[in-house]
Please model this.
Amino acid sequence: MAQFLFRGLRLCNTNIFNKTAACCKCERNTFKLISYVQPSFSTLLNKKFYSSLTEKKPAETSETTRALDPLDIFGEDKDERRKEKEKAIKNLKIGFFFIGASLMMVLGSGLYVLMDDNHYKKDEDEKDLYPVRVFNRGRLAIREFFESMRAPSYEKLLPDPLPYPYIQPPYTLIIEMTDLLVHPEWTYSTGWRFKKRPNVDHFLEQVSQNYEIVVFTASNGFNVYPILDSLDKNNVIMYRLVKNATDYIDGHHVKNIDRINRDLSRVIMVDWNADSVKLQRENALVIPRWTGEDGDQQLIQLAEFLNVISTSEVNDVREVLTYYKQFDHPLEVFKENQRKLLEMQEEQKQISGTLPINKARGSWKDKYLYGK
Model:
């Protein structure tokens, strides 16, 4: 619009007697002024007749157009843009050449390894053709590669138990961090932060007396370690296992405690996600997920549950956990069982007057602990 107005202004400033005015962009385009006098019919006829006799303007070629208008619509030199384009295409061809050469070297070296490595020759049928055997070795190598990506980084997730005279707790507690000990929250003012669950300090202090506490989560280590450093002020959490210690199965990071290097009859996993503990469900206590409520008391109930197991000297915790596996809220069921047990103990105390409440053994504790 501005260029159109500028051209109109130039036309107005030209001499009215001049029949043409040069364009502001280039000199080869002209604008004819319109006469204010209506031409006669004879004038138009003569003009049309004589214009046919004049020499026709030669067609403009690409060279003449480039010479007359060396600038493109962006105001840049067309020759320079063409040279830059040719240079970019040349560099692209060189890059593709080096990429192809690198791929050929990788494939060639891999093929050489498959041909000579005895590891991939096991369970091989000698009757098959040699190309078929090489193909099967390559398929085996690719499968082992993806399995190594899904498996943990190391075979033993924990070191050997502490020898005497060091004190090794009789039980091992493996607990999830996210949505059990802390809860992630996001706000516009603070961004991401982790909210500490109520009674976390009391829970860790009570449980650490008889349990080897291990935090096992599928989060990355660079997120987990700073949170646990600020959460565990008394250093009662003995080990920390993160994402690279899990097995990746069916799109989930699963905790495989077969690699935990402990007696599974004395290992308890506490989690809110059943898919994370599906390999050893008999060792897991799945409780509801904490979503950030301030009045939560679930950790107190969990500490009582774990302390009852340790003081009862349960030989195989899997019997207790298998019983509570059938309930959606196992800690509520445990609380109700404990209430019934205390009522029964009170009745027996009134009858005999000699049975202390905290020394009840045998069938009572078995019945009201895990239904036996």
